[in-house]
Amino acid sequence: WRLVLLGAPGVGKGTQAELLNEQLHACHLSTGDVFRAASKSAGQLSPAMKAASDFMRKGELVPDSTVWEMVRERKECLHCVGGFILDGFPRTLGQAESLARLMKEEGISLHAVINYDLPATEIVARLSGRRTCEGCKAVYNVIERPPKTEGLCDKCGGALFQREDDKPESIKVRLDAYDKLTSPLIDFYKKLGALVSVDAHGTPAEICDRTILALQLKTA
Ligand code: AP5
Ligand code: ZN
């Protein structure tokens, strides 16, 4: 499958990408994960990557040119035998157009763009409760999916931390950026006949089953 996961910040795209990938074994490219890893790496950051971590901290989108450079460097992901899951990319019409051009050049097309749908109040709750393991990067939620021992990762025992952009002031900026710049992609992909809408209520496993079913219906 060649998939794009669309949806507001915190709707559960990363959680679903991990679950879907247990079945699909695709290349999972999360632009947010790549930027976060780069900003924590010990090496010297290029000026563009340094600027990217400042945008992220505030909850603003990284400029299209920086995102696109990073995605192009990973274009082998488009040819992974298991397909690919793009998570958090594209996020603007400009990025969607660049992706469409690149895929045309590479002779491939998208199977589906999955749009996860959840009311804003529930999105804020998921974001505010999120904690990430500093060791293995596993994602928890203090309310909905707490670890067995408070503050520690079930998988590796690492300490859990709150992402800087999950603080209330950044959450607001991220949701505004989503409304203005990312939500127009829903119509963009609807017009192309690629959009599959999935209700993001329920447990991660339920949402994953719903996603697989929706994909099967689309190609039936
Ligand atoms: P990115 O990392 O992509 O953040 P995001 O889109 O804001 O998405 P999140 O990672 O916050 O949420 P998610 O939907 O993956 O939810 P998750 O599964 O973690 O981007 C971060 C920043 O990088 C951006 O703000 C921007 O600055 C920059 N950036 C990245 N890509 C860019 C691009 N293409 N262009 C420009 N800038 C870019 O779940 C959230 C929480 O909910 C967790 O606690 C989880 O445990 C919980 N949860 C998940 N599912 C459920 C469920 N079913 N029930 C209850 N809780 C659940
Ligand atoms: Zn861990």
From TrEMBL:
Under Pfam families, the record lists: ADK, ADK_lid
Tell me which residues bind AMP. T31, R36, E60, L61, V62, G88, F89, P90, R91, Q95, R163, R174
Question: Where does it primarily localize?
Answer: cytoplasm
Query: Can you provide one Gene Ontology molecular function annotated for this UniProt record?
Result: zinc ion binding
Name the chemical reaction catalysed here. AMP + ATP = 2 ADP
Which ranges carry the Adenylate kinase active site lid domain? Answer: 130-165
On whether Transferase is a keyword of this UniProt record, the answer is yes
Q: Give the metabolic or biological pathway.
A: Purine metabolism; AMP biosynthesis via salvage pathway; AMP from ADP: step 1/1
Q: What class of enzyme is it?
A: transferase
Record EC number: 2.7.4.3
Q: What the protein does?
A: Catalyzes the reversible transfer of the terminal phosphate group between ATP and AMP. Plays an important role in cellular energy homeostasis and in adenine nucleotide metabolism.
Annotated protein name in UniProt: Adenylate kinase
The organism that produces this protein has a lineage beginning with: Bacteria, Pseudomonadati, Acidobacteriota, Terriglobia, Terriglobales
